[in-house]
């Protein structure tokens, strides 16, 4: 059996303007000390923070929530990317 695919969620903190449309779509988005969106790391496999962004890796079945938050963000500050599992290379 294979587990849920892993995916990353990134908040571009330069683009984020603290509108917080994301929070109501996915509670993993949280308001951080700067009044911008951060990511609650409790359920994350890994979190990487820089001044300009926060990226968290998850391996669960909540990618839809993250994608809805990304679509709801008026500033396109959220990116959700799936980690492609290496497959058969077609020739
Ligand atoms: S919806 Fe977008 S701009 Fe608003 S807080 Fe979330 S990431 Fe930032």
TrEMBL record:
Highest taxon, organism lineage: Archaea
Entry-linked Gene3D superfamilies: 3.30.70.20
Pfam families in the cross-refs: Fer4_15
Protein name as it appears in the record: Ferredoxin
Biological source species: Halobaculum saliterrae
């Amino acid at each position: 059996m294979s587990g849920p695919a892993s995916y990353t969620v990134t908040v571009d903190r330069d683009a984020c303007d603290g509108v917080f449309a994301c929070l109501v779509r996915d509670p993993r988005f949280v308001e951080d000390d700067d009044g911008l969106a951060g990511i609650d790391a409790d359920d994350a496999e890994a979190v990487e923070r820089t001044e300009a962004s926060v990226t968290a890796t998850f391996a669960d079945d909540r990618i839809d929530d993250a994608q809805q938050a990304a679509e709801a963000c008026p500033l396109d500050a959220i990116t959700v990317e799936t980690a492609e599992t290496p497959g058969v290379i077609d020739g």
